[in-house]
Amino acid sequence: KSANPQWREQFDFHYFSDRKDMLDIEVWRKDNKKHEELLGTCQVDITALPMKQTNCLELPLEKHPGSLLMLVDVAPCTGVSISDLCVCPLGDPSERQQISQRYSLRNSFRDIKDIGFLQVKVLKAVDLLAADFSGKSDPFCVLELGNDSLQTHTVYKNLNPEWNKVFTFPIKDIHDVLEVTVFDEDGDKPPDFLGKVAIPLLSV
């Protein structure tokens, strides 16, 4: 019930060089659980923004009245990575020793925000649901930890996909839960849900 809403929400997106450079934003109005109406869209060209500073943007909504006020920081991606199994970041014994020293009891209070990091190897899925008429699916896997989200590539026409990717997340809260969701890619339509598992960090 507001024409001037304030959300004050922060979102972290991991921007890699192989992704598109435009940040797409949509503003929606919700009457009830069933009815939604698009109030406007706008775009931010990430490549045009200065690095390592807070950019205050007032973006007019396209083809609709109103504007969106937001703060955007573009910074080098630290602590988050996607790699192949053959170049696993924890595979080097000397690196493992450095990490052990970094998070030893003696260094616990050196950086309070640096709790640690989580490394997940997504190998494969088995006996997935067939989402297409052909009896196959086009599965990809999304990993979410807090407000960090990374995903695998899509393996087409396969119910037993192998991804063999290594994902590394910085841990901001030891009480977070790692959520791993498998979707079926469906062209321009929203992906179909194929399954999900939730793993509390305290259980690892």
From TrEMBL:
Q: What GO biological process terms does the UniProt entry carry, in alphabetical order?
A: regulation of neurotransmitter secretion
Q: Which UniProt keywords apply?
A: Calcium, Membrane, Metal-binding, Repeat, Transmembrane, Transmembrane helix
Q: What is this protein called?
A: MCTP2 protein
Q: How does it sit in the membrane?
A: Multi-pass membrane protein
InterPro entries for the chain: C2_dom (IPR000008), C2_domain_sf (IPR035892)
Q: Which Gene Ontology MF annotations are present? A: calcium ion binding
The C2 domain covers which part of the protein?
A: 1-59, 93-204
Give the family, as the similarity comment puts it. Answer: Belongs to the MCTP family.
> Repeat: is it a keyword of this entry?
yes
Gene this protein is translated from: Mctp2
Its subcellular locations are: Membrane
SUPFAM superfamilies in UniProt: C2 domain (Calcium/lipid-binding domain, CaLB) (SSF49562)
Q: Which Gene3D superfamilies match?
A: C2 domain
**Does Lipoprotein count among this protein's keywords?**
no
GO CC field: synaptic vesicle membrane
Signal peptide range equals: none
